[in-house]
Amino acid sequence: MDALFAQLFAGLSLGSVLLLAALGLALTFGQMGVINMAHGEFMMAGAYTAFVVQSVVGDAGLSLFVSLPAGFLVGGALGVLLEATLLRRMYHRPLDTLLVTWGVALILQQLARDIFGAPNVEVRAPGWLSGNVDLGLLQVSSARLFIIVLSVAAVVGLGVLLKTSPLGRRIRGTVQSRDLAETVGVSTRATDRMTFFIGSGLAGVAGVALTLLGSTGPTLGTNYIVDAFLVVVAGGIGQIKGCVIAAFGLGTLQAAFEYSTTASLAKVAVLVVVVVFLQARPQGIFSVKTRSLV
Amino acid sequence: MTPIVRRHGATLAGFAAVAVALFAVAPSVLSTFRLSLLGQFVCFAMVAVGIGLAWGRGGMLTLGQGVYFGLGAYVMAMHMKLDDAGPGGVPDFMQLYGNGEVPLWWEPFRSPVITLVAVAAIPAAVAFVLGWAIFRRGVRGAYFAILSQALAAAFAILLIGQQATTGGTNGLNGFRSFFGYDLFDPVNKRMLFFIASGALLLMLLAAWQLYRSRYGELLVAVRDQEQRVRFLGYDPALVKTVAYVIAAVMAGIGGALFVPIAGIVSPDDVGVVPSIGFLIGVAIGGRATLFGPALGALIVAWAETSLSESFPSMWTYFQGVLFVVVVAFLPRGFASVSALWRRRPTPATEPAPQRQEATV
Question: CA dist B258 to A203, B36, B180, B190, B206, Å?
Answer without folding.
Answer: 38, 10, 17, 14, 20
